[in-house]
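TICKET: design request
STATUS: open
ATTACHED STRUCTURE:
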């Protein structure tokens, strides 16, 4: 006898998204433990952690009205304190936090700049992943581009005002602002995140 887990495409996509969320949380927990045990280099850890954080942010924003992270963790009995700390509370890799705290001789602006750069990279990867996952509706893409624009704005001393990336993101935000919430981007519109 065949057991159906879903009745329609929407239910199937929801279950797949929940499975992805579960996998991201578990993978982050394993990565955090590997880093603490010095089984992975700091560079590899940071790259993978940024990727997992951006995937988590992208997925959790798309599931925002469906499930909350604390309820999800409780329902699936996830024992992943390191992952939850990294994904929900901190939002940046431990290497970025450690660089900011160990550079006590560096001014506070440098530590803030490192965190702002990490946030900008994370926002870019999140937006790029959303486009790759065919999340092309205006109400899905515009908040991500707004976050990217905001994080680039915080890099005022690092990025020049006429930086091509800033200009491009602001042009896309203006285009998306003119579109309806349910309108979707097409390939002919040359996606905003270089695909």
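STATUS: resolved
RESOLUTION: sequence designed for all positions
ATTACHED SEQUENCE:
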């Amino acid at each position: 006898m065949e057991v159906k887990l879903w009745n329609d495409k929407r239910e199937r996509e929801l279950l797949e998204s929940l499975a992805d969320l579960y996998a991201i949380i578990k993978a982050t927990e394993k990565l955090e433990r590997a880093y603490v045990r010095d089984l992975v280099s700091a560079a590899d850890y940071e790259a993978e952690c940024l990727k997992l954080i951006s995937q988590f942010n992208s997925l959790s924003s798309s599931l925002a009205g469906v499930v909350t992270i604390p309820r999800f963790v409780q329902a699936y009995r996830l024992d992943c304190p390191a992952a939850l700390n990294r994904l929900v509370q901190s939002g940046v890799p431990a290497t970025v936090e450690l660089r900011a705290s160990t550079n006590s001789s560096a001014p506070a602006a440098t530590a803030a700049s490192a965190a702002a750069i990490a946030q900008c990279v994370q926002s870019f990867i999140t937006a790029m992943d959303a486009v790759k996952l065919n999340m092309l509706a205006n109400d899905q893409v515009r908040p991500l581009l707004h976050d990217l624009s905001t994080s680039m704005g915080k890099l005022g001393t690092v990025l020049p005002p006429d930086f091509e990336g800033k200009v491009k993101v602001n042009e896309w935000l203006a285009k998306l602002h003119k579109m309806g919430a349910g309108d979707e981007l097409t390939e002919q519109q040359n996606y905003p995140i270089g695909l």
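CLOSING REMARK: The chain has two domains: 9-103, 108-189. The CA atoms of residues 181 and 188 lie 19 Å apart.
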